Amino acid sequence: MNTRPKKSLGQNFLNDQNVVNRIIKCADLSNEDVVLEIGPGKGILTEKIAKVCKKVVAIEIDERLVKILYDTLRNKENIEIVHDDVLKINLPELVEKKLKTKSYKLVANIPYYITSQIIRLLLETKYPPKEMILMVQKEVAERIIAKPGNMSILAVSVQYYAKPEYLFTVPKVAFKPQPEVDSAVIRIVRNLESVNSDEENVKKFFRIVRSGFSARR
Q: How far apart are alpha carbons 56 and 177 in whole angstroms?
């Protein structure tokens, strides 16, 4: 089977066990944790997560990789592979029917070309993860944790809903094929206050934010 990475899906496969181990350590998983993974690729991270948590549900859009995941992980009873597009799937329904808990963690090396969309989706969904450990482009990680005065709309959006933290840098040589830029692993912990935010006030806040950034251009 042809498993060459698809540029159209932004695929660069993590190929460094030391990085995988550091991600698992940062996630601080227990045998009671339920984990959602996005873009598991060939399962290098998925298998490690499953060894230390109660259940993993992994969403993969690429049919070729889904077949590989089924073949290599079929004997792992606490792993469930979902063949779907994370931007199109009914996430609240997946949480209710697959994860079966509203208190879950997300651990993922997400496709870089849709990083902002995925983060926003996860923060704004009906049942957001209590904590996210994400691998993103280093530049994006730095933008997300930016302080007032240097903040982008992405930083404002993330920091409205959650507290982001830069954990460590991942060199581009840790991937195959090697991307053009380095990556970083970040932690995003949802603010409890934002969970109960009034929807109309949230919309009003972001209208003001977008207006402010438009005026700066």
A: 26
- pTM for the model stands at 0.86
Could you list the mean pLDDT of each consecutive 10-residue stretch along the chain, which spans 217 residues? 50 87 97 96 93 97 92 93 95 96 93 87 91 96 92 88 96 90 96 64 60 50
Domain annotation for the chain: domains and CATH numbers: 7-216 (3.40.50.150)
